[in-house]
Amino acid sequence: MDHPTSCCAALGAPSAYCHNCDLLVGLEGYHVLDVARGPDGLGVRVESPPGPAGCPDCGVRATSRGRREHRLVDIPAFGTPVRLVWVKRTWACAEPSCPRRSFTEVDESLAPPRSTWTTRARSWAVGQLRREHATVHGLARQLGLGWDTVWSGVEPILAVAAADESRFTGVQTLGVDEHVWHHVSTKAPEDGGRGPKELTGMVDLTCDENGQVRARLLDLVPGRSKKAYADWLTERGDGFTAGVEVATLDPFHGYKAAIDDELEDATAVLDVFHVVALGTKCVDEVRRRVQQATTGHRGRKGDPLYGIQTILRAGAENLTDKQRARIERAFAARPEHEVVDLTWQCAQQLRAAYSTPTRPKDARSPSASSTPSPPARSPRSPASAGPYASGKRRSWPTSPPAPPTAAPRPSTASSNCTADSPEASKTDPTTDSGCSSSAEDSTYDPHRNWEEPRKHLLAWTREPASRSSLMHILGRSTCIY
Predict the structure, then answer these.
(1) How does DSSP assign 375-389, residue by residue?
(2) Is pTM, for the whole model, over 0.70?
(3) Are 440 and 449 in contact (CB under 8 A)?
(4) Which element (helix H / strand E) includes 201?
(5) Number of Cβ atoms within 10 Å of the Cβ of 316
(6) What's the gap between Cα 206 and its chain centre?
(7) Beta pairing, strands 102-104 & 80-92
(8) Which residue segment(s) compose the domain that 336 sits in?
(9) Which of 270, 299, 334 is the last residue of a domain?
(10) Are both 295 and 253 inside the same structural domain?
(11) 255-310 pLDDT, tens per residue?
(12) What is the largest CA-CA distance in the chain?
């Protein structure tokens, strides 16, 4: 084939526009004249189609005065910066009495007057900053510009967006959390520092008509305190605060106090992230405490609890069979590891509670439930919570432990089971004597029920030794204050 096959040459005229090239560049109303690769990236020359133009002042049809080129920064393409060369048309007004002697083509949809960026390049840069977690330095590298040039281009757009109060309308679920802005000096900027290290961020968590959470950042204010949040709510006015029905927050009393003062009719709710994080933190604290109590040192290679510290932070639904077996072996290594097992199950219950697709009709806030259900036996096995070194597996206590000054109460399950032999009366009071002595109990069951009922943990948290570690954290992790 000895003739050119490109789309441009196939049109038969060197000056004809190429529809495919125009489609690739994507500037509606403009045609591509030339594309060349230079030292600063791709250079794309475009122009508008020829046509009549009138004087902006008098409206008289103008005469052409030729063209002039205007270089613009455009969106990067094919991994390289792009420089758009806009071949502008210039005209002269033919009306002698008109004060405007000449004028140049203007199109703000492509680029504002005297701008060095295309309009779509500015919008792209702002979108990268707001939604793609990009940095100004990263954008400068992609665009082939300096940091100051990029910031001066996007700052006016961000300032206009920050002054737009329409984003505060329709907020029914309001979230608040702190954000660490920097890790350098907290001195005032005029003294050489960067101001407060922490900021308070407000987020719109209202669901749209499709049930999707908007998750829009509304504002950031300096500081992390009650005053910072309360002042921001006061500035929004009564119209905004009256529409907020649910206010989510992290476990910080300053934000809670601001909600009580400014959002009296809203329901204060701890956000899911911090609730689950507190449950995971509790597992780590109990694991470290048991590690120290049983071995007398921090975790080392070969210690059962130290070997599962990472997988205990994962969700049970994400564990493989091998990881589940490792957890089983670590919990079965010593009887003292039972408390770690209990705490981990509690954290998994906490995590699973937020995975429920629908809320029960009779659901109440956790804080509204003052009396826990009576403890029952563990469903993991017929009568026990796991294998132990003695060959027997201890069952869950069937009644809450009595206070230290009171006489110990026999378990319900023990009283229901017959104890004809004298050895039955010597069984540990927290062990089901009549049900844990069967042959079935001495056999290890690898099929563990990973959804341990919460009522077992409520009984366990009454033990003084466990209350300090578990209730200190999970007691604060109620979904609703």
Answers:
(1) P---TTSSS-S---T
(2) no
(3) no
(4) strand 198-204
(5) 20
(6) 15
(7) antiparallel
(8) 284-356+371-403+443-474
(9) 270
(10) no
(11) 999 999 999 899 999 888 889 999 999 999 999 999 999 999 998 998 999 999 99
(12) 124
